[in-house]
Design goal:
transmembrane, ATP_synth_b/b'su_bac/chlpt, about 0% strand, 2 helices, transport, mainly alpha
Length: about 160
């Protein structure tokens, strides 16, 4: 066989194989590679977007947590203020009640003292009459001297 013919046939087969590869095999292969590159790029972009969203969400959660702590603190302080107001109101009401009871006790004591004075006046008058009877050694008429005893009670 002739080397030139063999070389020529090999060259024709090589170019024919290269042309078939470039026409039918290379385009789907390039499309698959480009499609894979696009998927990878999209995945990386989504990952970056997710990282940014995660950072924003972390900041928002910190802000929400700080706000919740602030609200909790304000609720606790409001509760303490309300409790103190209730305690103060109860103290004031207890003081008013204590003052009322003291005034009632004073009034009752004054009435009791007045009753005791009246009773003492009556007893002093009776003792005065009894003493006068014994001193005079005669019977004193109680009906006659009733007005004198009433005047004596009034003076005592």
């Amino acid at each position: 066989m002739n080397i030139n013919a063999s070389l020529f046939v090999q060259m024709v087969v090589f170019f024919l194989g290269a042309w078939i590869t470039m026409k039918y095999i290379w385009p789907p292969l390039i499309n698959a590679i480009e499609e894979r590159q696009k998927k990878i790029a999209d995945g990386l972009a989504a990952a970056n977007k997710g990282e940014k969203a995660l950072a924003v969400a972390a900041e928002q959660s910190k802000a929400i947590e700080a706000e919740a702590r602030g609200r909790a603190t304000s609720l606790v302080s409001d509760g303490e203020k309300r409790a103190q107001a209730v305690i103060d109101a109860a103290k004031a009401q207890a003081q008013v009640e204590a003052d009322r009871i003291i005034e009632a006790a004073k009034a009752e004591a004054a009435q009791e003292m007045q009753r005791a004075r009246e009773q003492l006046r009556g007893e002093v008058a009776a003792l005065a009459v009894a003493g006068a009877e014994q001193i005079l050694a005669r019977e004193v008429d109680k009906t006659v001297h009733a007005q004198l005893l009433e005047q004596l009670k009034a003076k005592l």
